[in-house]
Amino acid sequence: MNGDRITAIILAGGYSSRMQDFKPLLELGGMTLLERVIRLFQAAATKDVRVVVGYRAPDLVPLLDQWGVGWVLNDRYQDGMFSSVTAGVATLGPDTDAFFLLPVDIPLVRNHTVLDLIQAYRTSGKSIAYPTFQGRRGHPPLISAGYAEEILLWSGDGGLRSLLRQKEADAAEVPVADEHVVLDMDTRADYQRALAKWKDYDIPSAAECMALLRERFSVKSSLVRHCSRVSELALRLGQALNRHGSRLNLKLIVAAGLLHDISRGRPNHAATAAGILLDLGYPAVAEIVEAHMDSPVPGDRPVCERDVVCLSDKLVQGDLVVSLRKRFQKRLDRHSNDPGTLAEITARLTNALKLQRRIEEMLGKPIDSFLSDPPREEHDAQEGNLPTEAW
User: Fold this and answer.
1) H/E stretch holding 107
2) Can you count the helices (H) and strands (E) in the chain?
3) Pairing relation of β-strands 98-103 and 6-12?
4) Which domains does the chain have, with CATH numbers?
5) What mean pLDDT, rounded, does the chain reach?
6) Residue 358 has what DSSP assignment?
7) For 286, which of 85, 186, 236, 278 could close a Cys bridge (C-beta 3.0–4.6 Å)?
8) Most distant pair of Cα atoms in the chain: their distance
């Protein structure tokens, strides 16, 4: 689903007074916030991108010209954000079906969120699509151009939100696996948090992983509990290995543990899941998920995140942590009369045992010390609550 006949209006006309710096030109990941938001929509095939400028417009226009993006001057920017909304909406033509609205200080929205909103708008029969994360509405809404005239005639009391509140019957909420839709940047502290999040932007947070499991892929509760337990055990092993000199990325371990079985039940589920995660923009997670069935025992190379997730998966049966031999025994018994399959299972068990011994050597103690579950409330076990220590 592409963005034909959809316009993206980026709001960049305000004073940035609480930030005490000019937001559109703040740097984030080697680009300005303005460039990052422009690229978001262009990457999602939204061909018509327009930026509303006002305060310090001469500083932005050369940058917009470089990107080949249209700009709209709001000469009433001192009246607040709604004046920039109306300035942008006033430029929409009859060939526009709907438009996004995104303030420049919400720069980390994920590409797949924009695509999900377009899909929902096309199929829901509604005229407004709001992204939601954990039940909270965020940005950018996708709004029918049919509301343009009402917006332009609105008194401005309460801003656009007040007007759209009257249109709830025509609105769809679109759950997205993107915590950034509810994170804006008003202060320097907000900016510092955005810089920190950018460092691991290609790793979904634990909460985003849970949204992918439950909302995007509708994974069964029993499998969610399994993935949560694998992730918890992998985190504990990763933390222990780091205390012994490893430099494992714990966020990567947690995310891969949570998402390793999103395609369970489909042919070649590890590779299928990896392809999905790659399309979502998570290449490092995809690489681990693709190898979670059988990670070759490291020789001289250090133990890596892939090894930890692979071993943890082999140590979890359902949502219970068990020994490797118990984990494999049922499959060995089931295929005892099938020499080919039996050899494959035996080889995988042998490899897992070698990997376990390698990690035990690094930790200086048997893996059994990690196999007793930490105390958990029954509700937590049922809900598959997530490991959050990595964050």
Assistant:
1) none
2) 16, 12
3) parallel
4) 6-199 (3.90.550.10), 206-383 (1.10.3210)
5) 92
6) H
7) 278
8) 80
